[in-house]
Amino acid sequence: MPARTLAVWLHDIQVARLSEPSPFRLRLDFTEEALDVFGEGSRVLSLALPMSKRPLRDAEVRSSGHTVSAFVEGLLPEGNVRQHIASQAGLPVTDTMGLLERVGRECAGAVQFLPEGDVPGTGNVRTLSAREVDTLVADLPIYHLPEGATFQASLAGVQDKVLVVALPDGGWGWPEGGAPSTHIIKPEPLVGALPHLIQTEDWALRAARQANIPAAESRLAKFELREAIVVTRYDRSATGERLHQEDFCQALGLDPQAKYESTAESDRHGSRLKRIARTAAARAHDPDAFRIALLEAVTFNVVIGNGDAHSKNYSVMLHRDGSVSLAPVYDVAPTFYLDSRYKGTGHVINGKTSVDSVEVDDLVGEAVSWGTSARRARAAVAAVLERIRAAVDLVPLPSGAEHVKGNLETLWTRRSW
Q1: How many Å separate Cα 174 from the centre of its chain?
Q2: For residues 362 and 274, is the Cβ–Cβ distance under 8 A?
Q3: Boundaries of each HipA-like C-terminal domain copy (predicted)?
């Protein structure tokens, strides 16, 4: 049986062909046009996938590297969302190529996956009635899609969410045929989650912006009686143009299931933050500015008590000219201040893995390992701490979650931040 193939498009150029020559092993063949436009060795698709005249393949042994699969799997959802798409398409949840063919026209970033011979189009946006939107969001995790609608867009992650298009009249539309979505709507979980999770996520994003840390735009809204956070996609321009990005798992060639870094991995290879900082900063227009932006984002996640700042909750922007910048912060919530059991940093920070154990010296030491001078790192940490402190005082917490500030202040004093 011939291998299934999909055309990989980026910036209106077919940059590669993706195929599955054997079960669960993917292969990427870059096109002559991609090599002509971007050049051999270019990493505009992924930091882990340099463009080459030779095909990039998953290794025979998974532990030896499945960087192609890692990039692709990082575009697909996990959990309930993936199960629903697979069921709707009549596919096994393990059929990566089949799922990608179903939803690959609209993914995170600017990459698109189309059947061979197809070309990207503008798609179309189906206007949703207010009732359809309310039902769609309020009924999650059960997906009651509007009649005749199917999933045609993909976003990584476990949490139940929908991707929609903001319409000029203030309503919402359903993206079809590769139309770019503009917003993510994520309702408050019904069971098994921390109380006030989405409300404090909105608060944390507002605090980041107040502290002059680039962060995704967000607001809260109600759908029927269920509250949700509405997040503006930072990988879409104001005019709907796709902007390319990838998360740290993809950039490091790691499977999404490995999103939490272990101290054993850090001891063997150096911290993930160090590897990202050195790889990405080398391609930034201003390497020092990239390292400082990353240090500010890491410091914010620690101080705000984000116990889920793993490698899929940080991303880089990959620009057409080959340069790299840090993506705005997203998916931040003060989980540690909501429940002290949720205190993992997600990444190893100077050997530390708990929010309540990271000192200023650890943040400085981690940044020094990236190539930042100790003096520069300490000044940057002190400056961003001052901005975060002021922002926390200025941005009001949602009703019922006022205790977050008291818990933050307690740890702030204990850690001498």
Answers
A1: 21
A2: no
A3: 154-391
CA angle at 46 for the pair 296 and 295, rounded to the nearest 5°: 10
In degrees, to the nearest 5, what angle opens at C-alpha 352 toward C-alphas 349 and 353? 95
Q: What is the DSSP string of 167-222?
A: -TTS-EEEEETTPPP-EEEEEPPSSSS-TTHHHHHHHHHHHHHHTT--B--EEEEE
Q: Compute CA distances 393 → 81, 215, 381, 387, 409, whole Å.
A: 37, 18, 18, 10, 11
> What integer pLDDT is reported at residue 63 of this predicted model?
47
Q: State the pLDDT confidence band at 354, using cuts at 50, 70 and 90.
A: very high
pLDDT number for residue 395: 97
What pTM was computed for the model? 0.94
CA distance linking residue 197 with residue 202, whole number of Å = 9
Q: How far apart are CA 289 and CA 371, in angstroms?
A: 12
Q: Are 284 and 323 in contact (CB under 8 A)?
A: yes
Query: What kind of fold does domain 245-414 have according to CATH?
Result: 1.10.1070
The single-letter DSSP state of residue 280 is: H
Q: Residues spanned by CATH 1.10.1070 within the chain?
A: 245-414
Q: Cβ(309)–Cβ(385) under 8 Å?
A: no
Q: What is the rounded CA–CA span in Å between residue 229 and residue 362? A: 33
User: What is each CA distance from 267 to 32, 145, 261, 272, 277, in whole angstroms?
Assistant: 40, 47, 11, 10, 17
State the amino acid at position 300 in one-letter form: F
pLDDT tens digits for range 137-156:
999 888 888 888 887 777 88
